[in-house]
Amino acid sequence: MTPPTSSVSPIARLADRWGAPAQHFWIRGVPPRCPVEFDEELGVWNVYGHHEAVAALSDPTSFSSDTSRHFLPDPGAYDSSGVLTELDPPEHHTLRKLVNRAFTPKLVAAMEPWIADVTDELLDSVDGRDGIELINDLAYPLPVTVIAVLLGVPTADRALFREWADQVFRTAVPPSVNGSEEQTAGIDASFGLARRMTDYFGEHVDDRRRHPREDLLSGLVGAEADGERLTGQALVNFVQLLFLAGYVTTALLLGNTVLCLDTHPEEAARVRRDRAAVPAVIEESLRLMTPFEVVHRVTTRATELGGRRLAEGEMTALWLGAANRDERVFPRPHAFDPARGSGPHLGFGRGIHYCLGASLARLEGRVAINTLLDRFPSLRTDPGKPPVFMESPEISGARTLPLLTARGGRG
Questions:
Q1: What region does 101 belong to: left with phi over 0, alpha with psi -120 to 50, or beta?
Q2: Backbone angles phi, psi at 303, to 5 degrees
Q3: 4 pLDDT exceeds 60?
Q4: How confident is the model at residue 233 (pLDDT cuts 50, 70, 90)?
Q5: Phi, psi dihedral angles at 151 (to 5 degrees)
Q6: What is this structure's pTM?
Q7: Res 226: pLDDT
Q8: Is residue 112 a contact partner of residue 264, using CB atoms and an 8 Å limit?
Q9: What is the full DSSP assignment across 172-184?
Q10: Could you read off the pLDDT of 61-77 as tens digits, one per residue?
Q11: What is the DSSP string of 321-365?
């Protein structure tokens, strides 16, 4: 099924050239056949509708986040303690209380001048070139520097952190409850990566226990809520999650926002004239090109979703990117329209698992986009070097994004 030619958006026309994952049919302007449908091959219920995704995300009693036992060959070998995204209440609430204080609006807002300085320093290092590679030059190093400094780990290890993030999202195969050789190999690689990350962050955790500092990692080591503390593997797991999620969300958000503006020059001209529109541009890019495309839930009891009957113990894949283009909720869903307002998009999720670092990601995005517009009167993709997208169906965004600056001219 293909959309009518007259309704094809600029992004839809370019999706194949960019190498957007085949599973992301909505980025190509194609609507789902129905809001909820069963995938026989994967053994998973795909949820594409906005109302249906919200219903599942808002009901942790019926839709559990503890899904590892359905995908792993040996679930007992995996310790999910501290992995906030895989916990249900009451464990989730306890952990969330422990870490919420690190991301209060006041504390995040106070970081803006420093984030602006980091952004300027990164772009100073590429000053004078005819172009930049947005991901390597800014979209990757900015959030990884921010989260590394917050945690108190060496920013000099940025290359190592980038290697880890690339490995996490390397597979192009969606998870299947039926398993496959490729999935098993990917899981083995993930366990190997997790061990390396555990060793790295474990050393820093042990150091903070002996020598506390004024950083987030020290705060997490000493934090207490309801008489509970993060200890052992749970603490290291949480730090790993915080680090990777903090980097990936902002890196993809920045690249996707630039691509939305590049493919819609009228909106780019408008936001250059009126910088107050930058937050709305970011929100619309989160809707149209959602960084984290899918989250999984497993049913804890028989339930109904989108008119379909799901039995207990069935896996659901909630495709947030598709839900964000549900025409029942978003008129002209494939259009890039910042004037529609922030609306109920699911770019940062919904419910108890709403992204912990959403306010920080928005701040980094706003500062970075404004700085790019300040520095480069002309900024566009390079016709000879198109963006290359990440292959993983779990995320949407560029792995490389070459841009021509004003020095390169418009040709």
A1: alpha
A2: -155, 165
A3: no
A4: confident
A5: -75, -30
A6: 0.90
A7: 67
A8: no
A9: -S---TT--HHHH
A10: 999 999 876 666 565 55
A11: HHHTT-TTTSSSTTS--GGG-STT--TT--GGGS-TTHHHHHHHH
Phi then psi dihedrals of residue 97, to 5 deg: -60, -40
Q: What is the pLDDT of residue 376?
A: 93
pLDDT of residue 6: 41
The structure tokens 């994004």 sit at 401
Count structural domains, the chain: 1
**Distance (Å, whole) CA 394 – CA 317:** 10
Q: Is residue 321 part of a domain?
A: no
Q: Where are the beta strands (DSSP E) in 201-333?
A: 224-225, 228-229, 294-299, 303-305, 308-310, 315-319
CATH of the domain at 222: 1.10.630.10
Is 326 domain-assigned?
no
What mean pLDDT is predicted for residues 229-256? 85
The answer on pLDDT for 410 being more than 50 is no
127, part of any domain: yes
Q: Provide the 8-state DSSP code for 107.
A: H
Question: What is the distance between the alpha carbons of residues 162 and 193, in angstroms, rounded to a whole number?
Answer: 12
Q: pLDDT, tens digit, for every residue of 79-101? A: 667 788 888 998 888 888 877 76
Range of the domain at 132: 75-295+339-408
Residues 292 and 249: beta-carbon distance below 8 Å: yes
Handedness of CA 284, 289, 291, 293 (dihedral sign): positive
Q: Are 63 and 297 in contact (CB under 8 A)?
A: yes
**Spatial distance between the Cα atoms of 148 and 216, rounded to a whole number of angstroms:** 10
Strand partners, 388: 400
Q: Are 39 and 409 in contact (CB under 8 A)?
A: no
Does some domain include residue 333?
no
Q: Regarding beta strands 303-305 and 308-310, do their DSSP bridges make them parallel or antiparallel, or are they unpaired?
A: antiparallel
CA–CA separation, 34 vs 271, rounded Å? 36
| AA identity, residue 344 | P
Say what the alpha-carbon torsion angle 396, 402, 407, 408 is, to the nearest 10 degrees. Answer: -110
